[in-house]
Amino acid sequence: MANETVFKRLDCNPIVTAANVPRANSIHNSAVVRWNGAYAGVFRVDEIDMCYRLHTGFSRDGLDWEIDPEPLRMTSSDPAVYVSDHSYDPRLVLLEGTHYLTWCNSAPQGPQIGLARTDDFRTFVQMENPFQPPNRNAVLFPRTINGAYAMLHRPSDRGHTPFGDVFYSSSPDLIHWGKHRHVFGPYPGWQGTKVGPGPSPLETPEGWLLIYHGVWGSCNGFLYYAGGALLDLEEPWKVICRTRDYLLAPTMPYERVGDVPNVVFPSAMVHYPETGRVRVYYGCADTCVSAAEADLDELIAFIKQHRIQ
Amino acid sequence: MANETVFKRLDCNPIVTAANVPRANSIHNSAVVRWNGAYAGVFRVDEIDMCYRLHTGFSRDGLDWEIDPEPLRMTSSDPAVYVSDHSYDPRLVLLEGTHYLTWCNSAPQGPQIGLARTDDFRTFVQMENPFQPPNRNAVLFPRTINGAYAMLHRPSDRGHTPFGDVFYSSSPDLIHWGKHRHVFGPYPGWQGTKVGPGPSPLETPEGWLLIYHGVWGSCNGFLYYAGGALLDLEEPWKVICRTRDYLLAPTMPYERVGDVPNVVFPSAMVHYPETGRVRVYYGCADTCVSAAEADLDELIAFIKQHRIQ
Amino acid sequence: MANETVFKRLDCNPIVTAANVPRANSIHNSAVVRWNGAYAGVFRVDEIDMCYRLHTGFSRDGLDWEIDPEPLRMTSSDPAVYVSDHSYDPRLVLLEGTHYLTWCNSAPQGPQIGLARTDDFRTFVQMENPFQPPNRNAVLFPRTINGAYAMLHRPSDRGHTPFGDVFYSSSPDLIHWGKHRHVFGPYPGWQGTKVGPGPSPLETPEGWLLIYHGVWGSCNGFLYYAGGALLDLEEPWKVICRTRDYLLAPTMPYERVGDVPNVVFPSAMVHYPETGRVRVYYGCADTCVSAAEADLDELIAFIKQHRIQ
Amino acid sequence: MANETVFKRLDCNPIVTAANVPRANSIHNSAVVRWNGAYAGVFRVDEIDMCYRLHTGFSRDGLDWEIDPEPLRMTSSDPAVYVSDHSYDPRLVLLEGTHYLTWCNSAPQGPQIGLARTDDFRTFVQMENPFQPPNRNAVLFPRTINGAYAMLHRPSDRGHTPFGDVFYSSSPDLIHWGKHRHVFGPYPGWQGTKVGPGPSPLETPEGWLLIYHGVWGSCNGFLYYAGGALLDLEEPWKVICRTRDYLLAPTMPYERVGDVPNVVFPSAMVHYPETGRVRVYYGCADTCVSAAEADLDELIAFIKQHRIQ
Amino acid sequence: MANETVFKRLDCNPIVTAANVPRANSIHNSAVVRWNGAYAGVFRVDEIDMCYRLHTGFSRDGLDWEIDPEPLRMTSSDPAVYVSDHSYDPRLVLLEGTHYLTWCNSAPQGPQIGLARTDDFRTFVQMENPFQPPNRNAVLFPRTINGAYAMLHRPSDRGHTPFGDVFYSSSPDLIHWGKHRHVFGPYPGWQGTKVGPGPSPLETPEGWLLIYHGVWGSCNGFLYYAGGALLDLEEPWKVICRTRDYLLAPTMPYERVGDVPNVVFPSAMVHYPETGRVRVYYGCADTCVSAAEADLDELIAFIKQHRIQ
Amino acid sequence: MANETVFKRLDCNPIVTAANVPRANSIHNSAVVRWNGAYAGVFRVDEIDMCYRLHTGFSRDGLDWEIDPEPLRMTSSDPAVYVSDHSYDPRLVLLEGTHYLTWCNSAPQGPQIGLARTDDFRTFVQMENPFQPPNRNAVLFPRTINGAYAMLHRPSDRGHTPFGDVFYSSSPDLIHWGKHRHVFGPYPGWQGTKVGPGPSPLETPEGWLLIYHGVWGSCNGFLYYAGGALLDLEEPWKVICRTRDYLLAPTMPYERVGDVPNVVFPSAMVHYPETGRVRVYYGCADTCVSAAEADLDELIAFIKQHRIQ
Prior knowledge:
Six copies of one chain form a homohexamer. In chain A, 5% of the residues lie in helices and 48% in strands.
């Protein structure tokens, strides 16, 4: 494919489809982590009533998945904090030995970020929603930075949001959030309408590696792409460099045709230190899940070389 | 297909395409009835000038169709009642021994419902338009109810109508209409933006069976689905139950790719009492016609089981 | 005033304001008839909770009004026919010895026309709603035409409706309506965006005299004007002539400044055969009620002379 | 005035106009508190370049004001926290002996809430912005609640925001904010499009008294009104009651005519325990400042009596 | 008035209203020049059919005007060049001994610039339209620049144009136009949505003095202001300086209330070398014409001092 | 394919894809001419940063192309005339022995027409931009008409332009343009929203043959089609006839699926006098380039026969 760059799509794509879960209309935009020598995931399953719910899944190799046919149920001591029937676009991160889940937890007042923790991928304890609505995408960093927890997120509106910027906020307790900093915004081209964080950032000697989504508005609606950035290790709201070229664009039939045509939406990244490679999981056309892989050093070199000047 | 439910698509889909009529751009959203031991139909043919006209068609088995290359011409004694060059989305029903055709008969003041009768599928007599514009979908019931003719319809606006509810109206004479009742409206999910009647309702011991279309607005426009409802036999504006899950969703390539991507639009239903089955004809991607079949008892059971609570 | 035409505003304008009713935010767009040697009316009262309700009023001279502080309550044998908390823009007409009230009776599915009859302006019996929603303005003719009841109305959408045409429909029984005819639509200038019927038409030897509203969309929203037309006596959907010049434009401070700036909205017309004059009542800036008078012969001559060619 | 309710406008309205400050285009939506036996304020001054800046002002009686011709300058140790050239709609509250200022501090990513403290109305120390953008209105409570600082605010979008709900958030340190709770949203009528907090709530035995703004969308844009609510003393996100009728509507010429017609925007409330009265300051038509007064007991009784059921 | 700057409004404002012409709805946005020791003008007259036509007018003192009740009729040898029934916003300039008229000459394809010449204000010879539609405002310079005719103009769209920039184009023959240069665009504040040329530029030792209009979009539509700029004498597409503060804002009742509220629209400037003063004529609220005067040196000093940095 | 008309698509379609150029996201909407016994072209290459740039290409047979991996660089003596990073939709024409290139040369003030000349397809000299922005499509005629250069073009707006008409303008010097004439506009059906010129017109005894694009707005955005017209040889703004039926519609998978679904966009036409045939190159789904061929006499006969009456 001429417009593959540093990432190579897996030959077995798509790896998860509606066929993996009874009653599924589509499965896409999902979270995956390495876990206990295998893989665990939280999947966005749109059912045939078009409610969006989160389901856990497990896999030996990250490609062949067993997804729980029942939606994930949170426990919470506070009834004011609830999980919505429109829960979508989960991300996972391992932080201080616990896995944290962020997702878009629709509220009557607009899309809102949900936050939960789990130690076993069976019991999820829902915590306070970090931000006011509307907000559509958020990921935690895998460690505290300067003693505070840190999150990247994208404030939103209540509709099909024609704007989007990446923000950074920090917290002493995972409950109260502040010191909001603008990280970066749209840039002309494939990321000209909105940008938002993808998977949780990966710490590298060159900075935090962030894979993000960019959106372009054609005369027929929105197209979604994947890009990459390096953020300062200690002040991650400072951008070291960021791609001017995309990393992935909707090109394959399973990315072009589906419930929402022309979408690649990166939502998880797994690092293999043993081989120096990374694998990115991404939603395709709001219909299925695929993956693509790159050598980490080549990826960082590509981002630095194809940066916005 | 994971998201097939109680309906099974025919293997020979699509059964009618632009190739069936010279000068056709596309043929979709069409009406079919059993007639004289075979089948008759009225087809929406979008020609290569993108005028939409109605054509009659005949078939031995309902799958292999001879469609008249010339548009259907109405007779009418009143010049104020005309058939537009933008006539589309026909429905047929047998009522008191005569076949009645309803369709969307575009007027300069907006889409409007047309009404005509035929005894032989050669001569069609156009009658008064039942409603003020704008209105986009209407079907007659196959018998009078409490001594009055009865119709389901969807009021509209002049553009791409971001709303839609099903209404019921009755008439003593098929000319004057009144006693307008709201039947049901959108419901969050695949039917969250608009709903409208599909084929003429089928009388069953459990109530009138209505197959209807539901519309969801993504960030890239509208997707069309099929759902089902049971309406009270004597007061059909009262909903007994209605699907929360869809019956059909755009999934197959011929439903996903075409002039308007991601559309299934049910427009005719044939009942086979001899086998207990029903066949639904539906437009695909505003481009071709397909069909799907179900066992009537299973269909009713599905609707009752997967109902909105 | 340079832009007065054949109508002269009363010196005592505005004649009804919010001060006439406790709890009123504004009183405008109201119906008036001569009754028992005096005057009766139905007034649109927007209360301080911004619900719109109808109130009866009585006056010796049509200028000094006693308005009932309690809203009008309808009687109806059918619970499916209800009067909404957003009832507005009433019109009255005497037909076969009974007074009929039409108004905009908002339903959850959009604005809808309500119809009621009264013999004493104390008891109002609500009848079937004549049309499906959305429809925003309707007036009955004061007699049957060719044996049928007749109504002018303006179909609408659910929002701030950027279009509007006058339609004619007829009925054998005031319940079922049909034979819908387009009467006229917008015309470039002050009536370039929408037109709708004002008071019930007045029969004259020259045709039915219709005072109507026209709407122009500036870069700051809509302006409302009054125009006039003569319709064929036996086929009122045929326009004999219609003003190219407006009859009234928002000019006075009470027409320019108020809850909706720059509105004159004609809603009632009283004919004085004894003097050959007519008085038109009109809403001002969605805030108060005023009146203007003309000699009927001069008015008809003006409409014929200043017609759209 | 028929549509005055429990509030009486001052005869000397408007009390502050553009004439109070050289280079002012308009002065409106401003904050006032009692201070040192007199009054201090922070005023929104739109200058003749249509930049919006905050200016301090002082007054002996709260009616006759000396406003500093120079904009207020903040001190801040962190360059990431800046005061914008589009700073507007300030509120003030005395909390633990210090005065805190909140206002809308426009950022390139949308309107954002600013927070500062002052002990002398000369030096203002700007603190962290409490929330991510976009957010348009915020007020602090005058004391901690359950040991945490508390704020009411209205999330927003980047344009002319067609929605608005009141939210409650709390903080251990005035830096980090969390436990976001929905308080109330729009309600049909004058508050049908958006609602947002006005002055800082006043503690009363009946609950926290909140004066808020409500917005209605006519066909010519937005109209702004004032309403009132009582919130639970210990769990202020629980609404005890809230007005169905408005407290103030744009009625006077200085409220109807100006840069944005038909606006009353309450932004400050002064309590006089010595007389049992309150005075509300409000912006008029985005052009000047007025005030209205009520007896506190009567005001609370009005809110309870005219509540949404 | 606090927000008067260097311009002083005339006490006799408004100087032309609808009362000056029979059948006028409003007279505004008009052109005036000194002529034969007195004044001549071309006025935009919106008639009571809301057609916009141009009328000539004459005055001894520029304040008391005789306006021809008949619209100006052009002569033209080419039927392809016509004057529309929606002709508006004229400007005049004396160039090489002839007066040239530019105006907005609506075509079915959008607003378009018209061009005509006159030697006596009785016969106007219409020339080729200089530009493709849509374009809404244009003025000629009073002399050739580097041997070419020169024009400032504002390209537009077909609706209420939410954008606007000033462009410069030149011509060898007043028929063919080229070398299009961008001069300046919107700037945050009162000129944040669009800017367009007002009267023909005045040559001064400091550069070409251009009075222009700026537009701000509030939540209730557009407000129009007047600003000033100095352009390079030989390369007028180069801006020497331009006001950050406005020169005139809608403040007076006749500027705030009318067919389009809150508009001042400068369209003519007369220089009095004998006193060193200039008088600007401007349309008010799309309803009437007013004037304001300044000392030329003070005006230039103001523009230089209050410039955008 | 039922909806092929007189044009036959090449079996080798698509003939140019992203694979032809490193870093290409897509290659479409491109210009081709016969040159030196072979073919030369200028291609629109959207790179993986989604900048649109022009690249030259050469081919022996017009099907197998060598495209320069480096973008075309213009020379120009005037810095005010620049080639944008968003240069797209080129057309080529041979005029007086030189090849002229027109294209859409985006400027900050909107899309704008660029003009350049080349004698060797290596050096391109950029000339003055012919028109003010916004304008999106333009082609030169291959000879002067009545002594003047002539161009067809489509004025536009800055967004996704919901309108479009073909205009004709002429020039004495290729710098200054005037005598703007409306040629034709949209017509209900596939060309109901906008029309614009495709390749440079071909002179035939029957008139100038123009292949143009037409656009239809469905509920899911825009679809692009190809039509044909014959224009008067000496007064080309006069339409002799024009297709009511389209010549090409998006039907093939490579026309239906891509960055912008459902697009055929004709941009070049090569005439083969030796065989009497023409080949049209067209962009497909904003993703690749295809070609279709017809017999010239049959094509002209088709246009005459399937004309708008």
